[in-house]
Design brief:
The protein has 2 domains: about 130 residues, NAD(P)-binding Rossmann-like Domain (Rossmann fold), CATH 3.40.50.720; about 100 residues, 2-Layer Sandwich (Alpha-Beta Plaits). It contains 9 helices and 11 strands. Helix 1 crosses helix 6. It is elongated and about 60 Å long. Pfam families: TrkA_C, TrkA_N. It comes from Sphingobacterium tenebrionis.
């Protein structure tokens, strides 16, 4: 996949390095030359420019990019401006960083649904979320093992846990199965609620479309399982 990461502070730089290491093409953009220079040997491409300037922004290869991540954190105004330019340019997928609740409300108001909170979420978690198909969330136990929530791949729908052979074929443990449903609140608004369908699923449990499976295993095994 092709990514553009705008803003190469601690979070943006770490995410750019991890996505590059996973075989993606990554363009890192920052207004500060020293940040760009520090990463030029670690990611695919680096560009020093002011992305909040519409002329400079439109010089980026946006049409050939799968995801643009606005990781600017120290300047909320620049973050919002760049995010708005992404919307105006009809970027395929936009992920933007929010530094506080008001900032997040502004991003929501301009139509951004995928928002990063680096103070709560790691670059490791986001690199997995972006690279693994269907991944909902993950928790890294160490450098090699994780617990992840993932939407059940279509090819496994209608099959039992035993039939798929999580342990035998993938060396993965199935911890539980979840389902997200929409419910109305007392004030008439809807919200998404996660419910546990099975405490510890039995071998004959049939996986259904739209369910979320919680699994534990080696990162390589999880990646193989989620590969389409």
């Amino acid at each position: 996949m092709k990514f553009i990461i705008i803003g190469l502070g601690n979070f943006g730089a770490s995410l750019a390095i991890k996505l590059t290491a996973q075989g993606n093409e990554v363009i890192g953009v920052d207004i500060k030359l020293e940040r760009v220079s520090a990463l030029k040997e670690h990611i695919t491409h680096t560009i020093a420019l002011d992305a909040s300037d519409p002329v400079a922004f439109n010089s980026l290869p946006l049409k050939n990019t799968n995801v643009v991540i606005v990781a600017i954190g120290e300047d909320e105004g620049a973050n919002i401006m760049v995010t708005a330019l992404c919307k105006e340019a009809c970027v395929k997928r936009i992920i933007s960083r929010a530094v506080n609740s008001l900032h997040e409300k502004v991003l929501n108001a301009i139509g951004i649904s995928e928002i990063v909170h680096p103070e709560e979420e790691t670059a490791e978690r986001w690199s997995k979320k972006l690279c693994l198909s269907g991944l909902v969330d993950s928790f890294e136990l160490n450098a090699n093992y994780s617990i992840v929530e993932a939407i059940i791949p279509q090819k496994y729908v209608g099959r039992s846990i035993q039939e798929i052979g999580f342990r035998e074929h993938y060396e993965i443990l199935v911890l539980t199965i979840l389902k997200k449903t929409e419910r109305d609140t007392l004030i008439g608004r809807s919200r998404i609620v996660t419910t546990v369908l099975h405490g510890i699923p039995k071998p004959d449990t049939i996986l259904q479309e739209g369910e979320i499976i919680v699994i534990y295993g080696n990162n390589r095994s999880i990646k193989e399982f989620l590969k389409i």
